[in-house]
Amino acid sequence: MIVALGLAVQEPAWAGELPLTWPVFDAPPFTITEGEHRGTGIFDRIRDLLTARLTDYVVTRVTVPFPRIVTSLKNGDEWCFVGGVRTAEREGFAAFSRPVAMFYPLRIVVPASKRARFAALEPLSLRSLLSEHRDLRTSVLRDRAIAPAVDALFRQYPPGQTYARFIEAYRMLLSGRLDYLVDFSSITAYHIRQIARPDDVVGLPFAESPDPVFARVMCAGTPWGRAVVARIDAVLAAERPGPAYRSIVEAWTAPEDLPRIRAVYDAFLASD
Questions:
Q1: Looking at the record's lineage, which domain of life comes first (predicted)?
Q2: How many domains, the chain?
Q3: Residue 156 sits in which domain range?
Q4: Would you state the pLDDT for residue 2?
Q5: Do 134 and 82 belong to one domain?
Q6: Looking at residues 229-245, what average pLDDT do you find?
Q7: Using 50, 70 and 90 to split pLDDT, how confident is the model at 118?
């Protein structure tokens, strides 16, 4: 059935008695809603795994913009989003599972043609770019949480524009309408492969780049949501240590970043 802002699809193979809506936001390679790789993103596979284990829930999947997800969770709707980053502000309206995956590493992404200009500013600092080099244009996804230090800088020095879809931001970067983006390398690699050549952009380390950022299932902060999170945590406790789950977390990782992901996997398992 069609609903406002998105397409809702019930998954009757796992139908039960309790309601659960999975909102989906197109964010390859974590969630892929279009094209030949549709449904094979990291969060897609985790969502399918959880759905298969939560057999007593009537599951509905709805594709909506990310700000709509945040609004629905604030309203207490019976929604759970795979891929939320836990922040102090979000803990006021959402319940969070154990980590399900990780975002890492974070880079300042620039067109290769502008590499020399940014090299002249090294060692790079996002604070410096935002406060002292306002002529260099960037943009952020509205309502996105990247990492606490980075989020604080964007709040202090907000860019002049926001975007709704990652592919839109990368098109703006390559067309010269933006000078840089702040993003995780796997997201960059996926989108650049869709519209350009891998060597058309460069990912640069910067001073405020965080340790791995853990993605979680983010449910409404209601008794219903906390109950779902408890069920999800039990599934994750059983599944995360195994090789099949590790392969999901490592999927779509650039070969040069794979050693970094594997080096922090034990910390990922230990985190609550």
A1: Bacteria
A2: 2
A3: 106-204
A4: 30
A5: no
A6: 96
A7: very high
